[in-house]
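WARN retry 2 of 3 for item q-0093 after timeout on previous attempt; input resubmitted unchanged.
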Amino acid sequence: MKKKSLLLFFLVIVLLSQVRMPANAQSPSERPVIAIDSYSTDITPARGETFSITIGFLNLGQITSTNLMIEFIPGDLIPRDTGGFQTIYQLIKGEKKNITQTFTVSPDLWGASIANTTVNINYSDYDGNLYSDSFILAIDLRIPPYVVPTPTPTPTPAPMLHPQLVIQSFSTDEAILQPGTIFELSLNLKNLGNAPAKSVSMVMGGGSVETNMEGTPQPGISASAGDFSHFAPLDSSNITFIGDILPGKTIKTTQRIIVNVNTTPGAHSINYSFVYQTEDEQKVVDNQVITLLVYRLPSLQVDFSMEPGPIFVNQPNVLPLQVVNLSKQSVVLGNMLVAADDALLENNTALVGVIEPGFYFTLDTMITPFQVGPMEILVSVNFTDDFNQLRTFETTLLIDVVEMDGGDFYPGGDPFSPQDGFEDWEPQAVEETFWQKLLRVLKGLLGLDSGVRTEPVFFEDAMTPSNLP
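OK item q-0093 returned
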């Protein structure tokens, strides 16, 4: 019986060891709470000085905290020696421990009287729960008195003589630059220095002076590393020899350039380097940048979609107009307006919209001219360019206005004159049978045509029979 009781007791203990009790939610009073009880410095530091802070950490919670990891964030105060990181193994309930950290006041704190630093703390308890807190410490700074230095007389240095080349202005012979445009760039180069620049060379795309391993300048110019993706020199290399430029003198130089066909619209820069020698035989490089605007304007053709034919004075005439997009991409156009002097125009304005490459927009304008002779038709189409500026594409078409003359349609004379041989013509009745007469009577009773048939007449210039001359 005793053995059975011991065996039963042992089984109960084993079963209880296998059953896990559910974890209870932790209340705020059952956790560690770490706070900074006090902190002090060994000195009152000034800007750029190094000092030490002693900080006391106190556990205000009800249970023990373990693995305290203390991190000092650099800012006004820069942590030293420890990398801004310290640890405390544990703090039991109500326990306080001190640590000392060395800082250097940031040299950027000009005239500041207080410096701040942030302290982040991460810790846990024996159950594995993690906690974190953050604190900000404020340290008084000492502002040293400013002592005005006593000026000491110094000898006036002799003025240094050196040239300085500047691009004062530039221009292009083409008003609008587009991909594929070949233009001539004119540069006005002036020496703003007080010494002459000798053997000046202009390098498009940027250049530099060749040097050896010891850094000694060598003959020649390195000019092959420039950027020519948007603009490239044409008819010559990217190096242009100018010669000597005296102080205050302005030199005009030109260069022929092409815009790359794959250049996107926008403001693109060109780098220029001016390599020259000073009076003491030193090589100097002045780098300059200019900016050119590249557009991609629509390529349009405005013309008649077909020949308008003769245009008669004081008569309404149709002008079949069309706008064709010759560009390689679609364009968005605004209003199309047709104008002319001494004429009345109808249906002469329309909103075009989007035109795909190779497609067209048509407009049939009605014109009534008031005078005979050549007349100019002005067709204008509005659109917005790549820099959101309103532009107008204009085309002048020429038409010839003539007088209305009936002879143009009836070369033989009066269209209403009787035919030759038919002045005394009278229609000849056709002999009818009894049934034909009876049919005409019935048609008359029904309100239909019941007239007597006549013999057909054939004109000389036609084979079509007719009952009239």
